[in-house]
Amino acid sequence: MMFKSIPLFFGLCCFVPSAFAGLIQSTPFEVALNGTGFGNVATLITLQTANGQTNSESGCIGFGNSTSDCGIAADGKIKNSSETQPVPSGITNAADLRFVFNASEPSGNSITLDRLEVSFYGHSSTVLFTSSIAAPVTLNSTQTGAGNSGFVFEIAPGDLAAANAALAATTSIGAGFAASNASGGPDTVFLQTALGAPGQSGAPEPASYGLLGLALIVGFVISRRYKREVPAPPRERDLSPMSPLAGNNSSLTPSDRV
Prior knowledge:
alpha+beta
C-alpha cells in the first residue's frame, strides 16, 4: 500500500462550483499521475461498465469491504482491487486527505462524475462521517490507460471539524461513486495525502530538486576554489650525492667522503 504525493499538472476540465459541499475540488484539481496503476496506490474502489453497457457505472465499498451497505447501488463491475483503506500513517488532520478520481477513458473522452462519496468507519458498519460532492462534475478531458489522469478532491473546510472529530476513532475509509458518459473504464478512486503532509511516499517537489541541484553546484565551486587557494606542500630537498644541491661533494668518490 502506498500513499503518494500529488504533482502539479496543467490541465483543463469543466469546473463546477462546490460551495457548501462536503467534498470540494482541490487546487490543483487535475494532476499528472505517475506509477499509480493497480497495486501501487491505496485503491478505494474501481468500477467498469458492464458488458454491453457503455454509459454508466456506480458502486461503493463500505465497512468490511461490503458492496451492498454503503449508500450507492452497484451498476457495472466492481473490481477486486476495491477495498477500504486505513488512515494513512501520521495523518491526524482530515485536511491532509485527498481523494483522487482516476478516469481511464478511450481516446481521452469526457466523463461525468455524478456522485462521489467517502465514509469513515470505526469498528462496525456504523458510519462515523460521510462527505460527498454537491453537484455532478463533468471532466471534459481525461487520459487513456489506468494511472494517467487524476482529479483531486478534499474535505471542505466547513466539514473539517466533524471529520476530525471522527478521525481519531476511524479504522478504515471507504468510498463510492457514480459516473455517466463512461466508456469502458476501469475508473478508480484512491486515497492519497496532500503535498508535504506526513505519511506520503512520493517523489520530491520540483522545488526540492532545484535546491538540491543548487547545493551541488555551490559545493563544487567551493571545492574548486579551495584547491586553488591551498598552496602545494614544499618539495623535499634532495641532498643525495648526485643532486646539484649537494655541491662539490657530488664529485667525490665514496672513499673520499667522511
